[in-house]
Specification:
Blueprint (H helix, E strand, L loop, with lengths): L2 E6 L6 H9 L7 H6 L6 E6 L5 E6 L7 H8 L4 E7 L6 H12 L5 E6 L6 H15 L8 E4 L8 H16 L18 E10 L3 E9 L3 E2 L3 E5 L3 E10 L2 E3 L1 E2 L4 E8 L8 E3 L5 E12 L26 E6 L2 E7 L6 E3 L5 E13 L4 E6 L4 E10 L13 H7 L4 H12 L1 E3 L9 E3 L1 H14 L5 E2 H15 L4 H17 L4 E3 L2 E3 L12 H13 L8 H8 L3 H9 L3 E5 L2 E4 H16 L5 H8 L3 H13 L3 E4 L2 E4 L1 H14 L1
Parallel strand pairs: 1-3, 1-4, 4-5, 5-6
Antiparallel strand pairs: 2-3, 7-8, 7-15, 8-14, 9-13, 10-11, 10-15, 11-12, 11-14, 16-20, 16-22, 17-18, 17-21, 18-20, 19-20, 21-22, 23-24, 25-27, 26-27, 28-29, 30-31
């Protein structure tokens, strides 16, 4: 993994000159930068170490008006190289950049006191001591300080050795932090775009720092927050084409596909990276490095803490920056015992984010660093789930214990996708939600059997009153809970009906006229486009008891509360759907034409076959599902 080091420091303290002396590469890439002698936008260089490994450098501007550009470069770094000129000492942007690095949680780095050829030994030692004192109040407290001269070469070898130590420290970083491999193996590739441009004859090109990986030429990616699917047509590292990048370091990607990438976008194969207009973050105050007790000028460093509800802030996230407001509600801010504060941030536009992303909050005007932290919920609860966000659960989201944080997320949202795809219909569901659905199922089936076609959507509505979840997932979760009740004997199932234990046994023998009416109803439903169940039962003179008996015996199957088929007819339609799906993707229109029915019937049948795994729905249409494939395999073995 290639380590990425970002420079930091006041304007004209020699950041770019130092990189040029270390690497031989001029990171000033714009004509205006060369003309003015200052870094305006983010520049890049790289250093080959004696063992063949490389360190990538991100050179950032030091001017106070370009702090936004500085954060573009610093947003995706593993470590920092703080630069302070010996003749000038720590200045305003030295302090501000240190506060920003502290806010980003950068804990590995080295400081270089430059231009020592311009001062005597006493002055150099004084500045080295001042820098150590500043570092000691930040996350970079353990960083070494090296005195160097880019002109004479003094200290450059010592600085290279210190950078080798930085690389080792990053590789040993705590699992879950930037630049490390999290438990369970590497994450999918992710790149926050810091440059986007077009090359004649090649199309769109983006650059950034690769996280996770590996990434190979031709791999599919998603461009967020637009949600556009793209492909890595070509990869380059340090100007040379490569077939594959193992993870980490600076990468240029020639993209194929739709969308117009721009700075701040994220390319990813990680589904946890999502477009969002709100964030919940846990933030700690920026360290007080400015000697003034309460800086108020435009160039002041530290902004007041904590940010008040409703206050305007500037959120720097990855390579993006967005205006935001701190939430005003009582569930929008929570103070933690260690001095950190949990904030719900409403963003001015959507951004790409994932839980665990680092961010910095700044005051828009006058400029100043408020603090830094991490995203603990990239898609905060809305609707009914928002009422569940108690302060103690929000505090749990910020816990270092992953199990506590996960349990808190489930408790707040009520329903979240299961990381391993297990759970109830692929979801982790809060205990109180499961209990409420189980009670509702008991009550619905306490006196007489109830059909699954009626029970599932009813229980789905129960779930949606408690938490925010779409109807399809709510119904699927409800069905999984009912299946669990049946498996434990709390409910009993016969055909498409479920009831409490003993209900089926207590039903009396049917009268002859009821049996005749049942047969008439079954015949009425033995057509591709049957009448509504209520109308067919009325015409046949079939009582609710007779309808339930037909369902219990499996002679009719209810697809919706008022739509049912004779079981034999549904089997014929199922066989026809499988045959049509064998020839290619089956569309609703094709199935409608083949059966001579209408969209109303076709959609209900296809949804039922999808749910049972007989068919498999894709954007292109319906294919044979796992159950149909398994049946074919069994039949083939029997024939053999």
């Amino acid at each position: 993994m290639t380590v990425v080091v970002g420079t930091a420091g006041h304007i004209d303290h020699g950041k770019t000159s130092l990189l040029r002396a270390l690497t031989g590469i001029d990171a000033d890439r714009l004509p205006e930068e060369r003309r003015r002698g200052m870094t305006i936008d983010v520049g890049y260089a790289h250093l080959r170490l004696p063992d063949g490994d490389e360190i990538d450098f991100v050179d950032v501007p030091g001017h106070d008006r370009l702090v936004g550009n500085m954060l573009v470069g610093a947003g995706e770094i593993d470590a920092a190289l703080l630069v302070v000129a010996a003749d000038d000492g720590p200045r305003a942007q030295t302090l501000e950049h240190l506060e920003l690095l502290d806010g980003l949680g950068i804990g590995v780095g080295v400081a270089a006191v430059t231009k020592v050829d311009l001062v005597d030994a006493g002055r150099a030692a004084e500045v080295v001591a001042a820098v150590r004192d500043l570092l000691g109040r930040t996350t970079l407290a353990d960083s070494s300080v090296v005195a160097v001269s880019s002109t004479t070469g003094t200290g450059l070898d010592e600085l290279r050795r210190a950078l080798e130590g930085v690389r080792v420290a990053v590789h040993r970083a705590v699992p879950g932090t930037v630049g490390s491999t999290p438990p369970g193996g590497p994450r999918p590739p992710r790149l926050a775009v810091d440059r986007a441009f077009s090359v004649r004859g090649r199309g769109k090109v983006v650059t950034g720092t690769l996280r996770g990986g590996p990434l190979a030429r031709g791999d599919p990616l998603r461009l967020e927050p637009a949600g556009v699917e793209v492909r890595a047509r070509e990869l380059q590292v340090h100007g040379a084409p490569v077939e594959r990048v193992g993870g980490g370091g600076r990468v240029a990607i020639n993209l194929a596909g739709g969308g117009q990438p721009e700075r701040g976008d994220v390319l990813s194969g990680d589904r946890s990276v999502r477009a969002t207009g709100e964030l919940i973050a846990v933030v700690r105050a920026a360290p007080r490095l400015d000697p003034a007790p309460a800086p108020t000028s435009r160039t002041g460093v530290t902004a007041p803490w904590p940010p008040a509800p409703g206050s305007a802030v500037r959120v720097h996230l990855g390579t993006d920056a967005v205006d935001a407001r701190v939430g005003r509600g009582r569930r929008d801010t929570v103070d933690l015992p260690d001095g950190r504060r949990i904030l719900r941030l409403r963003l001015a536009h959507t951004v790409a984010a994932a839980d665990g992303d680092r961010l910095v909050l700044r005051r828009p005007s006058p400029g100043g660093t408020i603090g830094g932290g991490i995203v603990i919920d990239g898609l905060p609860p809305i609707g009914p789930s928002r009422r569940r966000a108690r302060p103690d659960l929000l505090a749990g989201l910020a816990a270092e214990d992953a199990a506590v944080a996960s349990a808190s997320r489930i408790a707040i949202h009520g329903v979240v996708p299961a990381a391993d795809g297990a759970g109830l219909a692929g979801h982790d569901v809060a205990e109180d939600v499961v209990a409420a659905v189980e009670r509702a199922a008991d009550e619905a089936a306490v006196e007489s059997p109830v059909s699954l076609a009626t029970l599932r959507p009813a229980l789905g509505r129960t779930i949606r009153r408690l938490v925010t979840v779409d109807p399809a997932n709510a119904a699927a979760i409800a069905g999984a809970i009912v299946d669990g009740l049946v498996s434990t004997g709390r409910l009993v199932r016969q055909g498409d009906l479920v009831a409490r234990p003993g209900v089926f046994e207590s039903r009396r023998e049917l009268e002859p006229q009821t049996v005749a009416a049942m047969e008439a109803l079954e015949r009425a439903l033995a057509v591709p486009a049957p009448p509504s169940l209520a109308e067919a039962a009325r015409v046949a003179g079939c009582s609710p008891e007779g309808v339930r008996a037909l369902e219990t015996a499996g002679r009719i199957v209810r697809l919706e509360p008022d739509l049912a088929y004779a079981a034999s007819t549904l089997r014929e339609l199922e066989s026809a759907a499988i045959r049509l799906a064998d020839a290619g993707p089956l569309s609703p229109a094709a199935f409608r034409d083949a059966t001579g029915t209408s969209r109303k019937y076709v959609m209900a049948i296809l949804e039922e076959l999808d749910r049972r795994g007989v068919l498999r729905r894709t954007p292109a249409g319906h294919f044979r599902g796992p159950r149909a494939i398994a049946r074919t395999a069994i039949a083939d073995r029997a024939d053999a």
